[in-house]
Amino acid sequence: MTDKNNLPIHEVHRLKAIEHFLMAERALDSDEPLYDQAIMNCHFGTEMIMKAAIYKAGGTPPTSGADGHNLLKIAQVKIHNKKILHMAMNNHRFILPFWHKIVGAWDTNKRYEFMGLSESDYDDLYEAYTRFYQWIKIELVE
Question: In the prediction, which pLDDT does 4 show?
Answer without folding.
Answer: 61
